[in-house]
Specification:
single chain; Recoverin, domain 1; 2 domains; two-stranded antiparallel sheet; 9 helices; rod-shaped; heme binding; TPP/p25
Length: about 180
Amino acid sequence: MAEGTVSMAEVETSFQKFAVHGDTKATGKEMNGKNFAKMCKDCHIIDGKNVTTTDVDIVFSKVKAKSARVITFEQFNQALTELAPKRFKGKGKEEAVQQIYGLIAGKDPANAGVTKVAKAAAVDRLTDSAKYTGSHKERFDDSGKGKGKSGREDIPDTSGYVSAYKGSGTYEEKVKNP
């Protein structure tokens, strides 16, 4: 292996990580077009000038089998070999391919633009059950944990006493001790 080259194992590891990204059924042996485009974007192969998303899609279509919707690692290497001279203009084919591998090796799919949990003061204020009033406050216990169904439903009192009667439960004692 020459100086400045990247091991194919590292490139293959990155290929597998991107191949399974966002697809629970993926094995990592084949990559679909969406993930190939994502990889090209995350690894800065798409630079917006020399290589665009359209170029990546065209190359993907070119290397995949006619009816297939995925590419293997071999076809992936073929695609990179086609993209390399475009991305690194003025470099020899081999050097360009090595540089493109250098961009990919050791990379993981970036979760850019993934929704972050909002931690604003407004959200804290709105979700603090200690500040709830009226019937809403009945839905939480003292620790602020929801009571579930018992906090939402009016559970009928079947004791036989009218509500707010202070002496409930004392009838038996009165009958026994007149």
